[in-house]
Protein: alpha-1,6-mannosyl-glycoprotein 6-beta-N-acetylglucosaminyltransferase
Organism: Bos mutus grunniens
Amino acid sequence: MITVNPDGKIMVRRCLVTLRPFRLFVLGIGFFSLCFLMTSLGGQFSARRPGDSPFTIRTEVMGGPESRGVLRKMSDLLELMVKRMDTLARLENSSELHRAAGEGRFALDRLPAGPGLMERIQAIAQNVSDIAVKVDQILRHSLLLHSKVSEGRRDQCEAPSDPKFPDCSGKVEWMRARWTSDPCYAFFGVDGTECSFLIYLSEVEWFCPPLPWRNQTATRRAPKPLPKVQAVFRSNLSHLLELMGSGKESLIFMKKRTKRFTAQWALAAQRLAQKLGGVRKDQKQILVHIGFLTEESGDVFSPRVLKGGPLGEMVQWADILAALYVLGHGLRITVSLKELQSNLGVPPGRGNCPLTMPLPFDLIYTDYHGLQQMKQHMGLSFRKYRCRIRVIDTFGTEPAYNHEEYATLHGYRTNWGYWNLNPKQFMTMFPHTPDNSFMGFVSEELNETEKQLIKDGKASKMAVVYGKEASIWKLQGKEKFLSILNKYMEIHGTVYYESQRPPEVPAFVKNHGLLPQPEFQQLLRKAKLFIGFGFPYEGPAPLEAIANGCVFLQSRFSPPHSSLNHEFFRGKPTSREVFSQHPYAENFIGKPHVWTVDYNNSEEFEAAIQAIMTTQVDPYLPYEYTCEGMLERIHAYIQHQDFCAAPGPAPPGTRAPQSPFILAPNATHLEWARNASLAPGVWPPAHSLRAWLAAAGTACTDACLDHGLICEPSFFPFLNSQDAFQKLQVPCDGIESEMNHLYPAFAQPGQECFLQKEPLLFSCAGSSTKYRRLCPCRDFRKGQVALCQDCL
């Protein structure tokens, strides 16, 4: 009788109990092997997977060496399992084990015979081993084939020597060294191969010619333009308020202002609709990105809204949004960099690649902060689409500062200039330079009943000081002229303070603290005088005061303030000289509503106060600062300004046949011949052109104003020819073409005429005693200097 070791029985029992899970495990290994093999070989049978980038060429089995290694490990694992199961089978075949099973202690009849199980395991192991060998053979064949294909493609993936694409080879060299510097290249399918470089540079960017073996129909097919829709005036601004968002004090201020002006916008839309009649108004898709409100730019304005900070920019932006919406255009508003990237289609990365899609907007309104953000994140698309950008620029950008090369060579480079845009793309708060487009803002327009009520309620001896921040009251010498004013009027202030009265405010001034805008308007409606301390420059408050029946008194600057002598203007892209706190009020409104005096001259100042007290003025608002005036102006810009398709100027020294001039009867200037055909695509219409030869040292801006006209830089190309000088009877001993923002001009002495070589440098601003400038002027609509008589 054979005895069985109890420990051996226990061991056998444990092995038998675990056989069923083990079988499942073996089957799982087999299934996993099959799945892994199919996955590994998936790329072998298809050139491209659904998720692949369209620019990726799959020429090898992904993870080939890893596939072989895993299969070998699986084969080794199965061989080890076979050895262990072989030991189990020997125990299973012993007679003691069968007798024990016969006694019913083990249910061996439920299990397959040991040799059968072993044969199956051995068969799986052999199959996996065979598969590993075959995979190895396939991969070796694939690598050999890939090397042959690569050898054949190498000729097709070399940078071509095409004179139409002179930068191609240099860009390929750059990609070899730097393609990993930005993840956006990999996003577009660049993987370090020559082919991927050329595909990217020819299909995503445009430095290289298209590869002949690529499918060009997909890459060259441009999206079909959407059908044009006519813009319809809107009067309900509820949706605009939703688009403006919330969460920032600046946005809350802008929304309150928009809501307060809703009725005036609606009335202005009705008036303009009647004026335009059946004129077609194409609807534009417009993105408005307010860069200075983004966190990335610091957003210094929002925290100061409730502390007396400057509100001029927010006033203007609120009115721009309202005007664009009322005119019926599609509007998208962003105040964060993340929103901007999402709306533009910026690819992931550091901003070196173009956008992932064609720009879905016809126009983009932004500021200098937003302009910088777009340049950083749009890659080459910025250069492609910058003609659609309009930059809200409070103080203006002159052409000499805008042209990067010229500004660098001649000392005009600043932190805000050198963008190489058409100068008309910069849009200002006031019309201080015709080189830029005048955007403006609006003030409240009163009806006749309201005007009479204000006149009846005026306090003849009440003055309000222009300045909400205590720092403005630190002006040296203010006590002298304020004490003179205090003899005649009660002085009120609206200076912000938290707990105690600002020490800068004299005791005889009645300070109301920072007032909400409606309450501030009521204060202006009572006051006789609104007095400025010389700062801030060119804000909206003086126009609001004049519109509410106040006289505005301001300081004359001698010498004038500019970037050469005043810290505030230093670094701004303009050489403009400011002769008073508010030049627009002085030059375009003037007495009796605006008085400009020397505050350092006590006698002149006191005489002005006495005269103002006896002067009766009605509330006055220039038409261009009404809601209707702003709608009219922006409508004209949107429908007529096109800096993407504008025809290029004729080369220097030539005269376009469709632009003949005649000398005026008094022989002082040139006019557009009445019987001449109009230049197509030119706006303003060319027949409004009047050309004058300015005196030496006079800018074209001033020369045109002296004749009751406005300088129009769009007309410079017509005058940039020898013919213009000849018809003005200017004796040119020689003609030269150079880059200079003062050209075209006549040099004295020397009798030499100079033409402009760079169209972006045509400039109304600028003067020199050496030159008499040839200046293009035009007429303008009453109360609307931005538009000529026939500009609508």
Remarks:
- The longest strand covers residues 551-561.
- The chain has 28 helices and 21 strands.
- The chain has a mean pLDDT of 83.
- The CA atoms of residues 235 and 266 lie 5 Å apart.
